Amino acid sequence: MVVEVSYADGREDVFDLERLCEGRGQxxxxxxxxxxxxxxxxxxxxxxxxxxxxxxxxxxxxxxWRLMLASPEEVRSIESVSRDGRxxxxxxxxxxxxxxxxxxxxxxxxxxxxxxxLLRRALWLDGAVSRARPDLGAEEACALYxxxxxxxxxxxxxxxxxxxxx
Length: 166
What we know:
The chain is an alpha+beta fold. Helices cover 36% and strands 31% of the residues. β7 and β8 form a beta hairpin. α4 packs across α5 (118-132) and α5 packs across α7. The chain is globular. The two termini are 36 Å apart.
């Protein structure tokens, strides 16, 4: 797995995690866990666990190592995070958008023009979520498709500034 982290100052860090595991023996499987869930408070970490032969032919999980990819201070200046060439997080409105959640929501809900820009599609999703779940507050609704309230506001401003023809 290759993780790429791009920063506002132009720096880009590339981590080849397969190479980090070389020389550690050959496990049956290696589980990589990117810890996006605590990124803002604890930084961006990857954890690796290995699975090796166990009793009765069942592989046993062995806790492995942890590697900090970005400190909490660095997370504040991250522009994007990609895993194996696929965008996972990107900055909008001063916050990081969860592209996995946005893509999943779009696949389930989006009925608009498939050629529309990403921000326009996200705003369409926001309207669909708001209509389907009026009981949710704006922040909760945004979280369902990977946005924050600040990201939604910036998207709305950008789409409005681009005009209807964009």
